[in-house]
Amino acid sequence: MINWSVILTIAKTHLITKRKQTAVAALGVTFGIGAYITLVSFMTGLNTMLDDLMMNRTPHIHIYNEIEPSKEQPIALYKQLENATHVVHSIKPKLSQKKIHNALPLIKYLNEDPNVKGAIPQLKAQIFYIAGSIEIAGNLTGIDALDEARLFNLKDYIVAGSVEDLHKNENGILLGIGVAKKMSLHVGDRIQISTSKGDVFPLRIVGLYQSGITDIDAIQSYTNLKTVQRILGEAENYVTDINVKLNKIAMALPMAKKIEHQFELKAIDINTANAQFETGTTVRNLITYAVSITLLIVAGFGIYNILNMLIYEKMNDIAILKATGFSGKDVQMIFMSQAMIIGLIGGVLGLLLGFGLSYGISHIPFETEAMPTVKTYPINFNPWFYGIGIVFALISTFFAGYLPAQKAKKIDPVKIIRGQ
After folding, report:
1. pTM here?
2. Which of 48, 60, 116 is closest to 274 using CA atoms?
3. Tell me: the pLDDT tens digits for 288-301?
4. Quick count: other Cβ atoms within 10 Å of Cβ 398?
């Protein structure tokens, strides 16, 4: 039966008598865990920020009419040549409408699906922003402003004005920040837009939009769906795109395929649309965790070396302990206890250090035009990181102390005393 009070007392005495070595071992764990917490919190926070930047405005499923060549050419309908080899040059896209047929019933159908959080319409139009005699090409998208803000975080990208201002104003426009800078326009000013047919319409700027992607901000603007329908002279059921937000993103691919097959429309899921970005995120996460684990392993080797040296210095003590009745198991538990005490103290200090560094980084100003809503460096204060940190500290110190403890267990006290 192991007397843990005696074992822990002896382990504590050994650690106190070798304060410098104990402090060095504990600091190795402290800095290892602290560096792990800081690195993983910062890198995952950065990845989350980048994901939000790309994904917040990206629908889980984007539905539209694709312009593509006819799969069946007229020559295939000529029966006399059905067994011949057909060679057709300069195939042109088939004449198809941008409008989604029966868009409103389709949106209603999608919103009734339990897997769908929301499906909303959009109407995209090619326009020109008019500044005196200058015309700047751009895109105007008609939206339901409140639904767009609710499902796709539109308000996070508005740097002046508000979603409510756009919703209330039928002649309002949410102007891209790049367009506003080119034309020296501000909230409250008026701007004229021209359609491809040459019709000119005046709109009032109720807000400025900044996505963080310069090329988009230089052409993109938003207004109410009904406003674009009126500008294009189309009916209230004229919709070119439907954006769908799901309750579970994993359902995006199978549901997109189902929509394509059922309604003969093009449906792009979010993973397909952002395949390259997802790969980059995965690689960054792998690098982050690989470096973090390496830091913890290095700290574990430091503890192993210190405990190994401690055993050689404590040979006489080990011999005396065994001579006075302590078994090899008791000696092993003494040195294992020392390792675990070092791991616990170093781990807790490491968590505090990591939290302090992360908290300090999270308050460092970080302002860039590419990300207007981000004011400080992104940090992810996930409690799991701290749980993993302390568990890994204890595990690494356990294995770091196991081999030296096994060596201490097998020491023959007779040989040591005879050698003295």
Report:
1. 0.66
2. 60
3. 778 777 777 776 67
4. 16
* 77 class by beta-carbon count within 10 Å (0-12 exposed, 13-18 middle, 19+ buried): exposed
C-beta of residue 4 within 8 angstroms of C-beta of residue 327: no
CA distances for 376 relative to 228, 356, 362, angstroms: 37, 16, 6
In whole angstroms, how far apart are CA 63 and each of 50, 106, 166, 190, 407? 24, 11, 24, 33, 68
Q: Which two tokens stand for residue 196?
A: 């491809």
The partner residues of 104 in beta bridges, in order of sequence, read none
The sign of the dihedral angle between the CA atoms of 96, 98, 103, 109 is positive
Task: Judge whether 338 and 71 are in contact, CB under 8 Å.
Answer: no
Q: What is the dihedral of CA 338, 344, 350, 355, to 10 degrees?
A: -170
Mean confidence (pLDDT) of the chain: 81
How many other C-beta atoms can be found within 10 angstroms of the C-beta atom of residue 82?
10
Query: Between the CA of residue 286 and those of 317, 384, 395, what are the distances in Å?
Result: 46, 17, 21
Task: Write out pLDDT tens, residues 2-54.
Answer: 777 877 887 777 777 777 777 877 787 888 888 888 888 888 888 777 777 66
User: Are 357 and 34 a contacting pair, CB within 8 Å?
Assistant: yes
* Sole residue written with tokens 């250090």: 353
Domain-wise residue ranges, the chain: 4-55+277-419, 61-73+95-273
Q: Rounded distance, CA 351 to CA 3, Å?
A: 31
Measured distance CA(142)–CA(243) in Å, rounded: 12
Q: How far is CA 321 from the centre of its chain?
A: 56
DSSP state, 65?
Answer: P
Which of 296, 392, 343 shows the shortest CA–CA distance to 26?
343
The CA distances from residue 354 to 33, 41, 196, 278, 348, in Å, are: 7, 9, 58, 28, 10
